[in-house]
Amino acid sequence: GAVVSQHPSRVICKSGTSVKIECRSLDFQATTMFWYRQFPKQSLMLMATSNEGSKATYEQGVEKDKFLINHASLTLSTLTVTSAHPEDSSFYICSAREQGGKLFFGSGTQLSVL
Amino acid sequence: QQQVKQSPQSLIVQKGGISIINCAYENTAFDYFPWYQQFPGKGPALLIAIRPDVSEKKEGRFTISFNKSAKQFSLHIMDSQPGDSATYFCAASRETSGSRLTFGEGTQLTVNP
Questions:
Q1: Given pLDDT bands bounded at 50, 70 and 90, which one contains residue A62?
Q2: How does pLDDT run across B43-64, given as a tens digit for each residue?
């Protein structure tokens, strides 16, 4: 199956700093990528839909100035958590849709904000 | 109308047994129903998926049963193995491409040796 690479897998940062997470589709072009947040023992919560070359669409309650999404190419989307605080600590997962329609997920990024 | 209800929340099965996880949906516009398997610290991996034009789909030890009239679908894992221990999520979407998935709450499966 298609491969979606997500980096870093784990990041620890100080409160107030910004963290960038990358999501790459390695062997296919993805016009649409999705960013999810997952708390322990809970389901995935869609944060935003990222479309190549246009602004991301954020779900209700997700601060777009807090979670900056850039989808500059057909193989790369980035999520930047700005001025991170302890409550932003979570598992962030991206997914990418291949042109055939199937969704593939990255391996996730565990963010811990001290 | 966007909810997908999943049960049970947790499931313990003996090795060789059958694991059954159920999901129910409300939105009749959903036309794609995948199941994902997630190990701790990893992203979900697509396991098997079904569309509403068939009532059952089987891939190896994994089978999806789909009941369109009841708006329910289930995952059956035959001959469950300890390596199947993971969290399983059902999902649904209204686009045939499977994008913008609505996930169930997840089921923590433990298969005892």
A1: very high
A2: 999 999 999 899 999 999 999 9
User: Closest Cα partner for B30 from B7, B2, B9?
Assistant: B2
- Minimum CA–CA partner of B4 in chain A: A43
CB pairs under 8 A between A and B: 54
Record: contact B44-A41, CB cut-off 8 A: no
Q: Are B27 and B71 in contact (CB under 8 A)?
A: no
Chain B hits for A1, CB-CB cut-off 8 Å, are 46
Q: Find out whether A45 and A36 touch, Cβ atoms under 8 Å.
A: yes
Give the pairing of strands A90-97 and A32-38: antiparallel
Check if B42 contacts A (Cβ < 8 Å): yes
- DSSP letter for B82, please: G
- Give strand ranges (E) for chain B: 4-7, 10-14, 19-25, 33-38, 45-50, 56-59, 62-67, 72-77, 86-92, 102-103, 107-112
- Asked if B46 lies within 8 A of A103 by C-beta distance, the reply is yes
